[in-house]
Fold this sequence. Notes:
Elements: H1 9-20, H2 37-45
Amino acid sequence: xxxxxxxxxxxxxxxxxxxxxxxxxxxxxxxxxxxxxxxxxxxxxxxxxxxxxxxxxx
Length: 58
């Protein structure tokens, strides 16, 4: 037996519109220090690790 539950296209579109209308959506888009998100997160995490990649204790 196969059960298929297909989502209605209007429901997905409505959720996307609700998300985009949230006042917090895109609040960091103009942050120059976050232009390269991967580099930004790497810099945030760097103090937690030693040069060889092991975690710092403490």
